[in-house]
Amino acid sequence: MAKIYHNPRCRKSREALAFLKEQNIEPEIVEYLKTPPTKEELSEVINKLGIKAEDLIRKKEAVYKENFKGQSLSDEEWIEAMAQNPVLIERPIVIKGDKAYIARSQEALEQIK
What we know:
Blueprint: E1 2-6, H1 11-22, E2 28-31, H2 39-49, H3 62-67, H4 75-84, E3 93-96, E4 99-102, H5 106-112
Parallel strand pairs: 1-2
Antiparallel strand pairs: 1-3, 3-4
């Protein structure tokens, strides 16, 4: 079973979803802007990605620039920021088994198969 944290307005997210379907993977689709992940879910995703919480932040978003740019926050604080402002979460994220992928590139998508 796979899950994708998806934003239908994002081209990269739509491409990742199409790729999964081409691979006959029918993921659970979570439109994370409508149904934001909990802090616990974000923590689990970050662990599966094997990254720091800050590495999952979309730094070009206005919310980041206005509220967080230049700040040095702990993983817990970044997770709280993403839980409160899901637009900050990098997309798309695909979870398959005990691994997670930021599926923005073809290389990342190829790893999901």
